[in-house]
């Protein structure tokens, strides 16, 4: 059985477009929300610039509950919320919403971990200069941790590509779905291989760009 | 002169731990005031009460006449704009250049861009690192980093500068340079400087007055001359001896005793306590020979301070007489 690339090509292009859309939207929206949540986790910890034990405990527990749920289960379990927000629990939009939600919690931990490495003395110096907590967050925390943050986001990018392959479970399409439906289920290894190669290229390009950017920021 | 900083029964506890208790100190405008103590004595906490990085849990801390322990956080930020701070580990932002680090407090204070640029250039010239403006802290030596730290602390023209162990991470030569720079800050701009240190040498080099902190309490304070001339507390005496080498340590003493079997006495030296005249007559009048076996003399401001350990050899009664004679001019202590 030969592979009919003429019919598959438009489907493959659609799948690539869906993956790129899902990953990009997740990195932008989830990246931003994860940054906010990570900063909140970091700032409210005991001894932090906005130390607040109740808030910190609540955030911590919520993140710890959501993060370990396998994405294949999360994407279906979040269904009611997806319907409320997106209007449907099927399709690329619904899958993207689930991806953004999951990524937000995952990224928040990575952001928190990177912020913890900032020398507390530098933050104390800023406080001694009369900087407000908000100013410290915007002009000190993020710039000081930018290099490691870029590497952290690059790591997340790969994880998001991985998660996006599950989108097919709720009709979200994408390269993962393409590989399973047109490759695995039709015993057509060539199709699977093509999908795999495209994903590998996508990940390589992202990792390369992330490494370069981080090196520039870190001046090493 | 009116005090610019005043502690009135100030205390600080962290949970069950008392870091400071009942501190009463007043620091005059324009002076360099040192606070010395061993690690854990509460020095760092004390200095942080002045800009309320730590809030006193009891008593009052007055800065420019205002009790800052009662101020809300927002008002404190205004107070902090008038107080610069220099740190042991410099605490510079790695992501910003030297210029960016020094400009940072000016941004917080809301200075316009052109004013910031002019001020930063002026500050970098003053601390002597104008050519490093576009380098990053990682590329600087410890001494250069501390110069950036000082420039940054002075940016907003503060009246008070807090130096928390500002030379403890530096080698002796660089320490001297940084201390001279702090002295210039004081003499040229009239900035009141509070120096926190565990090194008596630092106190000797730049301070006008000193307070000794032990277990969260001020155990002694006074002008540096007074404290060096007649330290009252054992802790203070030990600090003074680190500079003056007044008393041989037990290992030194054992070595000295091996070679010098005579009686050993320690005589304190200062400009108005001269032992030369008495000693020059030791042989002719008492038939007692003397040997200098330990000691040192240091400059302190415009006067000299120190002490010498002498070996006195002769008849016991004669040595007693010589010691009595020495005691008429200075303090003499016989080592058992």
From TrEMBL, chain A:
<feature type="transmembrane region" description="Helical">
    <location>
        <begin position="65"/>
        <end position="86"/>
    </location>
</feature>
<feature type="transmembrane region" description="Helical">
    <location>
        <begin position="20"/>
        <end position="44"/>
    </location>
</feature>
<feature type="domain" description="ABC transmembrane type-1">
    <location>
        <begin position="16"/>
        <end position="209"/>
    </location>
</feature>
<comment type="similarity">
    <text>Belongs to the binding-protein-dependent transport system permease family.</text>
</comment>
<keyword id="KW-1003">Cell membrane</keyword>
<protein>
    <submittedName>
        <fullName>Binding-protein-dependent transport systems inner membrane component</fullName>
    </submittedName>
</protein>
<keyword id="KW-0812">Transmembrane</keyword>
<dbReference type="Pfam" id="PF00528">
    <property type="entry name" value="BPD_transp_1"/>
</dbReference>
<feature type="transmembrane region" description="Helical">
    <location>
        <begin position="190"/>
        <end position="210"/>
    </location>
</feature>
<keyword id="KW-0472">Membrane</keyword>
<feature type="transmembrane region" description="Helical">
    <location>
        <begin position="145"/>
        <end position="170"/>
    </location>
</feature>
<dbReference type="InterPro" id="IPR051322">
    <property type="entry name" value="AA_ABC_Transporter_Permease"/>
</dbReference>
<dbReference type="InterPro" id="IPR000515">
    <property type="entry name" value="MetI-like"/>
</dbReference>
<dbReference type="InterPro" id="IPR035906">
    <property type="entry name" value="MetI-like_sf"/>
</dbReference>
<keyword id="KW-0813">Transport</keyword>
<keyword id="KW-1133">Transmembrane helix</keyword>
UniProtKB/TrEMBL annotation, chain B:
<dbReference type="Pfam" id="PF09383">
    <property type="entry name" value="NIL"/>
</dbReference>
<keyword id="KW-0547">Nucleotide-binding</keyword>
<dbReference type="InterPro" id="IPR027417">
    <property type="entry name" value="P-loop_NTPase"/>
</dbReference>
<keyword id="KW-0029">Amino-acid transport</keyword>
<keyword id="KW-1003">Cell membrane</keyword>
<dbReference type="InterPro" id="IPR003593">
    <property type="entry name" value="AAA+_ATPase"/>
</dbReference>
<dbReference type="InterPro" id="IPR050086">
    <property type="entry name" value="MetN_ABC_transporter-like"/>
</dbReference>
<keyword id="KW-0067">ATP-binding</keyword>
<dbReference type="InterPro" id="IPR003439">
    <property type="entry name" value="ABC_transporter-like_ATP-bd"/>
</dbReference>
<keyword id="KW-0813">Transport</keyword>
<dbReference type="InterPro" id="IPR041701">
    <property type="entry name" value="MetN_ABC"/>
</dbReference>
<dbReference type="Pfam" id="PF00005">
    <property type="entry name" value="ABC_tran"/>
</dbReference>
<feature type="domain" description="ABC transporter">
    <location>
        <begin position="5"/>
        <end position="240"/>
    </location>
</feature>
<dbReference type="InterPro" id="IPR018449">
    <property type="entry name" value="NIL_domain"/>
</dbReference>
<keyword id="KW-1278">Translocase</keyword>
<keyword id="KW-0472">Membrane</keyword>
<dbReference type="InterPro" id="IPR045865">
    <property type="entry name" value="ACT-like_dom_sf"/>
</dbReference>
<dbReference type="InterPro" id="IPR017871">
    <property type="entry name" value="ABC_transporter-like_CS"/>
</dbReference>
<protein>
    <submittedName>
        <fullName>Methionine import ATP-binding protein MetN</fullName>
    </submittedName>
</protein>
<dbReference type="GO" id="GO:0005524">
    <property type="term" value="F:ATP binding"/>
</dbReference>
């Amino acid at each position: 059985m030969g592979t009919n690339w003429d019919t598959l090509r438009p489907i493959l292009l659609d799948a690539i477009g869906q993956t790129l859309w899902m990953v990009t939207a997740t990195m932008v929206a989830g990246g931003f929300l994860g940054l906010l949540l990570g900063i909140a986790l970091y700032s409210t910890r005991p001894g932090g610039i906005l130390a607040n034990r109740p808030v910190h405990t609540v955030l911590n527990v919520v993140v710890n509950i959501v993060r370990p749920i396998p994405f294949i289960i999360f994407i279906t379990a979040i269904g009611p919320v997806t319907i409320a927000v997106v209007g449907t629990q099927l399709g690329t939009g619904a899958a993207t919403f689930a991806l953004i939600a999951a990524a937000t919690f995952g990224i928040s931990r990575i952001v928190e971990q990177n912020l913890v490495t900032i020398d507390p003395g530098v933050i104390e110096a800023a406080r001694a200069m009369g900087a407000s907590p908000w100013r410290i967050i915007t002009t000190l925390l993020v710039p000081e941790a930018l290099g490691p943050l870029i590497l952290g986001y690059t790591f997340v990018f790969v994880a998001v590509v991985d998660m996006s392959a599950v989108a097919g479970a709720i009709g979200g399409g994408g390269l993962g779905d393409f590989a399973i439906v047109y490759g695995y289920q039709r015993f057509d290894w060539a199709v699977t291989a093509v999908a795999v190669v495209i994903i590998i290229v996508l990940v390589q390009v992202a990792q390369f760009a992330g490494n370069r950017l981080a090196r520039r920021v870190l001046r090493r | 002169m009116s005090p610019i900083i005043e502690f009135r029964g100030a205390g600080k506890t962290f949970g069950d731990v008392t870091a400071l208790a009942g501190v009463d100190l007043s620091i005059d405008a324009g002076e360099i005031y040192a606070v010395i103590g061993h690690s854990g004595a509460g020095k760092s906490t004390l200095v942080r009460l002045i800009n309320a990085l730590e809030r006193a849990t009891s008593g009052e801390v007055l800065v420019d006449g205002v009790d800052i322990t009662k101020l809300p956080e927002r008002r404190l930020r205004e107070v902090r704009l008038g107080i610069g701070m220099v740190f042991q580990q410099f605490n510079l932002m790695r992501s910003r250049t030297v210029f960016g680090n020094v400009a940072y407090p000016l941004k917080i204070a809301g200075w316009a861009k052109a004013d910031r640029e002019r001020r930063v250039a002026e500050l970098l010239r003053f601390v002597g690192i104008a050519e490093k403006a576009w380098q990053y802290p990682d590329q600087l030596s410890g001494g250069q980093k501390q110069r950036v730290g000082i420039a940054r602390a002075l940016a907003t023209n503060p009246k008070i500068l807090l130096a928390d162990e500002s030379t403890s991470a530096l080698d002796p030569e660089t320490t001297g340079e940084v201390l001279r720079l702090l002295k210039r800050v004081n003499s040229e701009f009239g900035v009141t400087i509070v120096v926190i240190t565990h090194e008596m040498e630092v106190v000797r080099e730049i301070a006008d007055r000193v307070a000794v902190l032990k277990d969260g309490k001020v155990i002694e304070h006074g002008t540096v001359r007074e404290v060096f001339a007649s330290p009252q507390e054992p802790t203070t005496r030990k600090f003074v001896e680190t500079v003056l080498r007044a008393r041989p340590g037990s290992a030194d003493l054992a070595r000295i005793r091996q070679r010098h079997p005579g009686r050993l006495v320690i005589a304190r030296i200062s400009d108005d306590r001269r032992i030369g005249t008495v000693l020059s007559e030791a042989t002719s009048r008492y038939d007692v020979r003397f040997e200098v076996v330990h000691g040192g003399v240091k400059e302190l401001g415009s006067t000299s301070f120190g002490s010498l350990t002498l070996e006195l050899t002769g008849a016991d009664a004669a040595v007693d007489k010589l010691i009595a004679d020495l005691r008429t001019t200075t303090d003499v202590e016989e080592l058992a």
